[in-house]
Amino acid sequence: MRIRWPRSVSTQVLLVQLAITAGVTVFATGLFLAPLSDQLDDQAMRRALSIAQTTAADPDTTRDLLATEPAADGPVQAAAERIRRGTGALYIVIMDTHGTRWSHTDPERIGGRVSTDPGRVLAGEEVMQIDNGTLGRSARAKVPLRDDGHIVGAVSVGIAYDGVRDRLLGVVPSLLLYAGAALAVGALAAIGASRRLRRGTHGLAFADISALLDEREAMLHGIREGVVAIDAQGRIRLVNDEARRLLGLDGDVTGRPLGEVLPPGRTADLLAGRVAGTDLLTVSGGRVLIANRMPTGDGGAVATLRDRTELELLGRELDSTQGLLDALRAQDHEHANRLHTLLGLLELDMHDEAVAYVAELADARRASAEQVGERVGDPLLSALLVGKSAVAAERGVSLRVSPATLLPDRVADPRDLVTVLGNLIDNALEAAAAHRRPDPFAEVELRAEGTTAVLRVSDTGPGLPPGLRDQVFAEGWSTKQRPAHRSRGLGLALVRRLATRHGGTVEVTERAGGGAVFTVVLPEALNEAPDNEDRAGEVRFTPAGEAR
Question: The pTM is what?
């Protein structure tokens, strides 16, 4: 029957770890046992050598060898047997220079020639070896026997080889016990690692994990929503293509701290978790984003970003359309009242008065538009002021143009100034209309200082306390009720973002008599003055809608 390889990652890892642990244990045991036998043999041979050297160093042994004949009851045999029994050696053989035995464990062999060649030892060399003799396999040592420096014989000592093997076999059980204990510890560690891995992988197979990674990559880079993953130390772990586009990120930012990738501001605070909440508004690179942040179990977080720029623009267009509708409705009421007045004058046969009344109305409207056109040279800004005047009238607020207003027709990017001025006027009109005060108004002042444009809008509203003057420019912050079609708290944030883009500043102060004054300074917002402009500072303007 074919054994199937388990699909679970944890089971596969457990089996591999157990196999590796067992293999390492067997290998280590083999490495230990391989030299152990040689070490025990060497110890036995050196023990035999030590006994032989001790025997040869006894002067009585040399004297008895020279003074007597080989015999079973001779003094040489007696001395050799005494040493053998005392040391536990297998045998001690003393021979003369002819290789004749003078001692042996078997007395009948005394007087016979030794079974191995004694040439090396009789030549003066000490010999150690494992060899077979008449008494079996043994660890041997042979030492020359000297008398006044002359070799008169030799001493051969043997240690039973079976004793060495017994010692080796005696060590093996302990060694295997230690190896088994090491294998058990390794197996327990492998089981623990496998269980932890099972919890981390939820019992998935390698193929499932690979498929999940592929699906995650496809999903992250395919969705039209920005995703940024941040670790516990505030470093970016993952950022998809949409997040790169929304945040304006270039290059590889993975592993870099969030503070190095994004400039200080609300967007960085939202991603870092310094601002709490859901569906939080932020502006990044001129884009309106909705951010949400979800913490992860390891102390990091995953933030999602949705692009609301188009919806915000549609909302603002809807506001503009609503404002135009309000203005048209107000003009409709105003025209109806004037027509009724004109009809009454005609029915009363007051024709001269009717003509004077119509002329007065036409002159007043034309004078108001011409006044704006003379002071504001850019057609877009002039049209914006004229249009906002009608909206202000509908709200019961007067929109005034400051006598200090003087802006030539050399605006570098009128669209940015229209955005800044339109937001400031809308806020001023709302503040003045909401605050019950006699003769509410909003006043606009536009000035040119070289290539720098200065925009100042004041109102008769409630003003802003000093503690809120910085907070009012934060994305998502507003004192007004949120409309149904879009979010609040972006107008002044866009004003500050555009001012920063032009290298300028925006600030809010208190108006004398009550209300707020917003001042925006935009360096390099105007083109250089042409040569035909008066160097004394008098600038010729062309009214909006007229040719020079």
Answer: 0.44
